[in-house]
Fold this protein.
Amino acid sequence: MTSDSDRTTAASIDWDSRAATFDEESDHGLRDPGVRRAWAARLRSWLPGRPGDVLDLGCGTGSLSLLAAEQGHRVTGVDLSPAMVELARAKLGGRDAVFLVGDAGAPPVGERRFDAVLVRHVLWTLPDPGRVLAHWRELLRPGGRLVLIEGVWGSVTPVGIPAGRLTGLLAPLGGQVCVERLSDDPSLWGKEVDDERYAVVALPA
């Protein structure tokens, strides 16, 4: 279970100062063609089959947003870091995408509703994740889905959210939940990993 101190550490990171080098990580920038193809294939299987409206929360520099846009989706990205948002706008220049500075837990999208809410490595940092998931559910159109990519990282002082805990938090929303293990696919990370990494696709009732 993620402690309050873990969340404080994550929340206190100066993401603006990290924006310029953020894409240097293989699974952040997706610059390696093999890593990019691996994420594109997974995203295609998780997102709706037909082009729709995707809300990418904690979008960072927009790497997953770009893959979604390339697959025909209309993307709205939200990140707390203005520097990350600036880079995302540049990365998706000319595409059907909008990027906003804001809190992933309470995205500034007004009354807009989406066919999918896409979140990678963000939920574990937010206080009261159960409440946040319920709010994200309200941002979905009927038949919409949550695509949640999470994990537990580190062996000495691990941080993150285990798959079992996340599925438990989703239970009150009803509907279908599918967990897909990602740890054993090094093409996603550009290397072998031995920690817990997974994706959850939830279709709330």
The CA atoms of residues 153 and 159 lie 5 Å apart. The chain has eight helices and eight strands.
